[in-house]
Design goal:
The chain is of the alpha+beta class. It is built from five helices and seven strands. It has a five-stranded mixed sheet. It has a two-stranded antiparallel sheet with strand order 3-4. The structure holds zinc ion.
Length: 138
């Protein structure tokens, strides 16, 4: 790779998810997951221009929006929790994490109730898999 190509790829990398950015975000999300005593530990980060502006976790609490979306038992999913904690509504990027109790990465694709509204609000959505991360196509 020539130095010119390196410059081009690193400036592109700032706007897209890559291994390094993902590792950095994982370190932010993991403590939130391990502090969550629910059996499923979901953490959603909302980013604006690569800056984390909100962090949400799945939790049992009722909220009128959760009821409207149709979550069972009024559980607030991590995506909604993160959104309720931030005022921004422009240029939002969602990065979803799920870990088991050992801190291993698990599938955190937004569920069928979250997907429709998440696709409207977020420009890009990434989620963990047992082996890394994927970008949701839409
Ligand atoms: Zn959901």
């Amino acid at each position: 790779m020539t130095s010119n190509q390196q410059v081009a790829s690193s400036s592109l990398a700032e706007r897209v998810m890559n291994e390094r950015k993902f590792k950095r975000l994982s370190k932010i999300a993991l403590p939130y997951a391990l502090n969550n005593d629910r059996t499923k530990r979901h953490v959603s980060l909302i980013l604006v221009r690569n800056k984390v502006i909100s962090i949400g976790t799945n939790q049992l609490k009722s909220h009128p929006k959760a009821k409207k979306i149709g979550y069972r038992y009024d559980e607030v999913h991590s995506e909604l929790d993160a959104l309720l904690r931030c005022k921004e509504r422009q240029n939002l990027e969602l990065v979803n994490f799920r870990f088991n109790r050992f801190g291993d990465s698990r599938l955190s694709r937004p569920c069928s109730l979250c997907c429709p509204w998440c696709k409207l609000i977020f420009d890009k959505i990434y989620y963990t898999t047992p082996t890394g991360f994927e970008r949701l196509a839409y």
